[in-house]
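TL;DR need structure tokens for one chain.
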Amino acid sequence: MTKLTWMILFLGAAGLRAEEDRRPDHLTTRTNATDAAAKPETKKDDAKSSVATIPDATHKPVLTTNTVTIDTATLAGASVRYITETGMLPLLKPDGTARASVFYVAYTRENQTNTASRPVMFCFNGGPGSSSVWLHLGGLGPRRAKMNDDGTQPKPPFSLVDNEYSILHATDLVFIDPVATGFSRAAKDEKNDQFFGQSPDVESVGDFIRLWTTRHQRWLSPKYLCGESYGVFRAAGLAEHLASRYGMYLNGVVLLSGLLDFATLREGPGNDLPSLVFLPALTATAHFHKKLPPDLQADLSKALAEAREFIKAEYPAALWQGAALPETQRKTIVAKLARLTGLTPQLIEENNLQVDTTTFRKELLRDQGLIIGRYDARITGRDADPASRYPRFDPSYAATYGPFSAAMNAYVRGELKFEDDLPYEILTGVQPWNFDARSSYPSVTDRLATAMSQNTYLRVLVLGGLRDLACPIDGIRYSIDHLQLDAAYRKNITYAEYESGHMMYVNAPDLKKLQKDLENFIVQ
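>> reply
TL;DR here they are.
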């Protein structure tokens, strides 16, 4: 990174380009959700007895029953009755004592006579340092935080509504909050930071999945992982870890708005890859804001095809030459970048043919006094410092944080009946985060390739938003295209793209498409 120490995040979510990490958002900063409601009185006539429980893994989970009407072609608006299990599971030391309690919310469809045939999907977000609230109350669970249909922020106060596009009809769902997020925390006399790192994270989440599967007798069920943002990095490592450590072979892995190799996101000396893989996202964003020339503005598919062709040969060849690039070729590259991004040739020249996403977000709509979002570049905001080179905030993150925080804090006590006076940590600091790589970019491509090679039935679904300026889908496409994987297994990899950004599920049309894509993947 050029100006600040590198931090990884979620949203969401996710590892980000270095220059982006200067901005406050839920992948870089420590932010707590607002506290839950005040302590309930256990006796109405005795205020002194008002003590809320603070559960850990020794407490029994709380069970509630509810119904949701799911709108899908296979159900046609049918009512699905489900049981919600909210609780803690322990992470155990070799001597059997607990070193942490992990908070989870699990949804199982009621009256299923053969649980061995019923799929179960384990879901988590990223950061690292993010709870699972985004996937949970955004796209997959039976309840969701209410957003405007286009993914912009509704007017406070916020609300929680049924998710008619949940996938609970197709699979049971388990939402996991890694240690230090949500209500998950280390046991007494233990420290959270023992879980802060690539391998400890995979091992702890893997141990949770093993124990939940064992306690609920689901070893014979079809099993899936769904990770978002850095959760994609985690899921790829987990697929190999679960198989090698426990003999738990998965049916599928969903990689949503994430990364497999930090070389696709982190710029550095000799690494031009981020400039290449981000370009189609810049083109899609410029198209949305009507900044492309008429022929590209008239046809998004043509614009994306041109951008993707440009990053395969001409653009990387120019960057490879560096200062040796002839002036005539340089002018050609500048003109093509201006055509594909909507930026001025002068700005591209000033940035030496490599415009980072922070600059892009600040400059694309400068003439309108607007900045654009990183997680969802369709969403705009007004920056109080027009003279600054960088946006002061991410309007797409600001649009989601309040509604999701309010929804989770209301939901966990009000509907799930889970009492805990500690703040629900939607996003929290987990630095320093220790990666396994020391002299190279962190990567899990080898682990995903190993999992797919050893379990030839393992399928992978890659999902990404066209206007995601945090983890563009072309970055993970690049990583997967370079997997050391036999061609026979590549048929197990499928892709789906969405019109919005990182959290595509907050955009109503994309939420509906997401349900269909996941349903098709699970029922294959």
